[in-house]
Amino acid sequence: xxxSVNATVTVVYRAEWGRIVSILIxxxxxxxxxxxxxxxxxAAAVDRWSxxxxxxxxxxxxIQTAKNKAVDRLRRRIRFQEKVETYARELPTxxxxxxxxxxxxxxxxxxxxxxxxxxxxxPEAQVAxxxxxxxxxxxxxxxxxxxxxxxxMAQRLVRAKRKIRDAGIPYKVPETGDMAARxxxxxxxxxxxxxxxxxxxxxxPLVRADLCAEAIRLARLIRMxxxxxxxxxxxxxxxxxxLHDSRxxxxxDEEGDLVVLEEQDRSRWNHEQISEALPLVxxxxxxxxxPFALQAAIAAEHxxxxxxxxxxxxxxxxxxxxxxxxxxxxxxxxxRAVAVAMIDGxxxxxxxxxxxxxxxxxxNYHLLHxxxxxLLRRIGTTKEAAQSYEHALALxxxxxxxxxxxxxxxxxxxxxx
Length: 417
What we know:
Low-confidence stretches: 91-106
Largest sheet: none
Radius of gyration: 23 Å
Number of helices: 19
Strand content: under 5%
Mean pLDDT: 85
Number of strands: 0
Distance between the termini: 50 Å
Shape: globular
Structural class: mainly alpha
Order of helices and strands: HHHHHHHHHHHHHHHHHHH
């Protein structure tokens, strides 16, 4: 029974954390109270469900319990007494799914994203706070995404929550005309949600389909909100995520181990999703293409190739050249170097990666060392390849990726003998 309860709690946490916290923030207006009440509710579920059984609607049970926990917390705050009593009177006595107010977009998670991405907050804080509250990522996981120490990220999160509370930033989706000031940050957040689903920071599974689906859903909703003329970058982001997600089932084998792009069974790709995305790529490139549109164009070249050897690598490198001009970044330069290897060979790409490594910005980025190791493996420099694989293994946190790197390491170690 306990294993079944733990499994259910894990599933609900992964699928519903963002929605539950969003509902609590909407009800109580306090990020800390919402997160703490949600955590207490999940802990209570493990104990209660083990004795009482798993309820018919686990998410609704946790929402109701979390609301009760939040009321208890606020009751202990004398200055919120009057507001708390109002909340308590409004709480239903049964564990029903929450209803949305008429006249508003029925999506608390989208409200949460726009609240976190208010222009009054620092850009890095906007993204970090959304990843914490909507995705339930731990502070150290977010810190790794930003390549900063965990204490630095913790301070940013505290300051962002305080700013929202003290400035009275409203918990709502702004009018269409007011979205422009926030849309870049909102799109960035949605893409980072997708990335966490596409390659989970830690844990056993490589892919979290729930986060991928949620990011795609939110992108569709934003395009709808900004119709009939959604920004090209909104369209580009949706296309990019659809294309990446179309390859989801082929990215791991039956044991859950990573399968690299050139070895994937392309018959397992979601070709219906690719067909939907390709016209969106064209639409996003009509004027001055932004980073998401260019990344979508790169992903499209991969998805259009029936076989790995049919991939138009020169066009991909050309797109990366444009992307480096629009959004210079060592990660983009690293991806470009990998593409260059497919045209000019591993040796040329190794020189490019060594130039990227000089800055030190990607010292703790395991994919830099994994890419270098792979290129060294291809040219037969097995001793150096093994060293780079070992460096990547010291940094990787996802178990599926770890097993892949360990397998590659064994291959080059065997080749040295």
